[in-house]
Design goal:
By secondary structure, the protein is of the alpha+beta class. It has 2 domains: 4-71 and 91-196, Aspartate Aminotransferase, domain 2 (3-Layer(aba) Sandwich), CATH 3.40.640; 217-355, no CATH class. The chain is built from 11 helices and 12 strands. The strands form 2 sheets. The protein has an 8-stranded mixed β-sheet with strand order 3-2-6-7-8-9-1-10. The protein starts with a helix and ends with a helix. Bound molecules: iron/sulfur cluster (2 copies). One iron/sulfur cluster is lined by residues 240-246, 279, 330-332, 334.
Length: 356
């Protein structure tokens, strides 16, 4: 029997692109705006960057080191320039050209949706939003490795929300699905590829995730209601070195620090913001030297509660998208799926004790 995803895909217009057609399509996209896509970085790593040579774009990749957020919330950004002589200041003019993000995985797309929520609620954040405008996303399927667990947080590999087109690898090329009107216009203007009108005869959704959370994602907020005092936090803190990599590479973390720098002439200066990490000791330090989260166990708990409870209670969505970066790049091999599964065991034991 066909799954819901297969039926959804089967109703969409689709084209077959062989490798040459995909390359020509990338050349066509470059004529429409700045194209950003995964590239190889070193032997085994990948990075999103502007496409200068279409032949360097990688279609089949695990994950990039830095997430897509770097294009909307750069690691370092000037917020304003100031002059101390006349006390004037000006905001740098942000001119954003059209950006097309190519070969994007569904968890990455969903991370941008989470950031959209955080940067639009309350006071909308204009720096983020101006970069976000005029961008479109073309998705691609992927083979999960031992760190991906996006399905466990409710994000299927073929989740199409946010994409205009979606590439699914098939023998000798890709099926390209028209997801929305923007995608339809692109394919119509491009005018190549072979229209496929036969029923789909392959199982799209059957890719196997090795990393899995033991509970359905709907139950995770309930678990987090009961694990604030869990012993798991101390267990993780014994291994953690507090380097902050997990936050800095997280697809949905957005905390930043703001600093004013004055030039050597003591007249001009600029206010800049930098990515920050709640796993760093300095993050919760306040005047007088107090630190609200001076223990690594407190900081780890805060990091996880930001993903599975605090923002989730407001937005209704888990803030972890299961990209696996925090586990893959943690120097202490701390795995977020193991933490959650340990918390589930702790929660289950608590529930059993209550029944007895
Ligand atoms: S990356 Fe690993 S070691 Fe570094 S702060 Fe995060 S959990 Fe701790
Ligand atoms: S918490 Fe880890 S797995 Fe979840 S979105 Fe952040 S980096 Fe990815």
């Amino acid at each position: 029997m066909y799954s819901e995803n297969i039926i959804k895909f089967d109703q969409m217009k689709r084209y077959f692109f062989d490798q040459d057609t995909s390359i020509k399509f990338l050349e066509y996209l470059i004529g429409k705006g700045t194209v950003i896509a995964p590239h190889k970085k070193g032997e085994t790593s990948y990075s999103f960057k502007k496409v200068d040579d279409v032949n360097e774009v990688v279609f089949d990749y695990s994950r990039t080191i830095q997430p897509l957020k770097k294009f909307f919330l750069p690691p370092q950004e000037t917020l304003l320039n100031f002059n101390l002589t006349d006390n004037s200041f000006s905001e740098p003019e942000v001119v954003e050209e059209k950006k097309i993000f190519f070969a994007i995985h569904s968890y990455e797309m969903q991370s941008i949706r989470r950031l959209d929520y955080s940067f639009t609620k309350g006071n909308p954040e204009s720096n983020y939003l101006s970069k976000r405008e005029n961008s479109c996303f073309i998705g691609i399927s992927f083979e999960p490795d031992e760190w991906h667990f996006s399905k466990s947080v409710g994000i299927e590999i073929e989740k199409l929300e946010g994409f205009c087109l979606f590439f699914e690898p098939v023998e000798n090329g890709h099926l390209v699905f028209e997801v929305n009107e923007t995608g339809r216009e692109m394919l119509s203007e491009f005018g190549a590829g072979v229209l496929v009108d036969t029923p789909l005869d392959f199982e799209i959704t059957d890719k196997h995730f090795k990393a899995k959370i033991k509970y359905h994602y709907n139950r995770l907020p309930q678990v987090f209601e009961h694990v604030y005092h869990s012993k798991v936090w101390d267990k993780v803190a014994e291994k953690c070195v507090g380097c902050g990599t997990c936050n800095l590479l997280c697809a949905t973390c957005y905390c930043f620090d703001v600093r004013d720098e004055v030039d050597l002439n003591m007249i001009n200066g600029k206010r800049e913001r930098f990515w920050d990490s709640c796993m760093l000791n300095s993050f919760a330090e306040v005047a007088g030297g107090d630190d609200f989260r001076d223990k690594l166990s407190f900081r780890t708990r805060h990091r996880l509660f930001r993903k599975f409870k605090y923002i989730t209670e407001e937005s209704g969505e888990l803030q972890c998208v299961g990209c696996g970066r925090c586990s893959r790049f943690c120097p202490a091999q701390i795995n977020i799926v193991d933490i959650i599964n340990d918390l589930i065991v702790d929660y289950t034991e608590q529930q059993e004790k209550q029944v007895i």
